[in-house]
């Protein structure tokens, strides 16, 4: 049995609401900069799916986290990876991963789009192995430590604090008693926001804060100490991601656990944070690491008694399903992220929806990733190539 075909689908989907809040009406440009987060964002939901087919007719689906210019991922897979993959055994994923990583390693492409593209292929290969062997991915990873995966609601995309409190309360009433606030607007404002959410949800709720890399060590330490009496579960992305020494200093000063990792893609990038004791909770994203590398990262974390809370933002069906399988198979899982608006869009491209209820993801049933892609709907959302 050999790999015979690789198809890429860079997608651009118009949502009802822009990710992290805002209107999705027509604009001159899809891409815009959010000063509070420093990054470029799309007003559309963008991602890149990959479909790998064998000469026996087995199919595996993968996805890269590609919130902007997903056609770059498609070009890399089509022109760099497909020649390496065609004619190879779909079961040789580790060998193929090494070859894809080495393909541009000497040129310095050890992170970024090259590794994102590798992640998409890796997820597809795991799905494919599951289809061939008639086993779910979590079983191939060694089994499930849990029958369902605990999660927290990520972000409260409302324009003001009273509306965010009301939304948090509605989620709590649906059985979701953990929420993460997308803030980082200043120490005083963040404290006020967390205090209001705590008063709304009560003492038993779990509350986390994503600071979006907006603080200095001194500011983040002040914030962590002020929030400690409010029972915050973790402080995510407090400093610029390159500042390993700053994170080490902050962790020594902070009474709150420090979480980070959505910007990192390999165990080599996580290693200095771990060894320098600069982090408490690792947040690798399967759409940037792939399943294989995320398991390596989680194993490394386990040797240092650290927990893993996989990041999950705008990834659709394959990313979400892969995240659930990995989370089920991790002995050191903290919680998994849940993005309700993105989850709804993901389910629109699936023949059978994924399920997240009462604060838990249900394990997908079936072989491989346990999802069935509606390829007709996927093809209807494919963007034109611009590379």
Strand and helix map with partners:
Blueprint (H helix, E strand, L loop, with lengths): L2 E11 L17 E3 L6 E3 L2 E10 L4 E6 L6 H15 L7 H10 L10 H21 L3 H4 L7 E7 L6 H13 L4 E5 L4 H15 L4 E5 L6 H11 L4 E5 L7 H10 L4 E3 L6 H9 L5 E2 L3 H18 L3 E2 L8 H13 L6 E3 L1 H9 L7 E2 L2 E3 L12 H6 L7
Parallel strand pairs: 6-7, 6-13, 7-8, 8-9, 9-10, 10-11, 11-12
Antiparallel strand pairs: 1-4, 2-3, 4-5, 6-15, 14-15
Helix pairs in contact: 1-3, 2-3, 3-10, 5-6, 6-7, 7-8, 9-10, 10-11
Keywords: Lyase
InterPro entries: DgoD-like, Enolase-like_C_sf, Enolase-like_N, Enolase_C-like, Mandel_Rmase/mucon_lact_enz_CS, Mandelate_racemase_C, Mandelate_racemase_N_dom
Organism: Kosakonia calanthes
Structure notes:
This protein has 387 residues and is α/β, with parallel strands linked by helices. The protein has helices at 71-85, 93-102, 113-133, 137-140, 161-173, 187-201, 217-227, 244-253, 267-275, 286-303, 317-329, 340-348, 375-380; strands at 3-13, 31-33, 40-42, 45-54, 59-64, 148-154, 178-182, 206-210, 232-236, 258-260, 281-282, 307-308, 336-338, 356-357, 360-362. It is built from 13 helices and 15 strands. The strands form three sheets. Strands 6, 7, 8, 9, 10, 11, 12, 13, 14 and 15 form a ten-stranded mixed sheet that branches. Strands 1-4-5 form a three-stranded antiparallel sheet, sandwiched between helices. Strands 2-3 form a two-stranded antiparallel ribbon. The longest helix has 21 residues, at 113-133. It is globular and about 60 Å long. The mean pLDDT is 95.
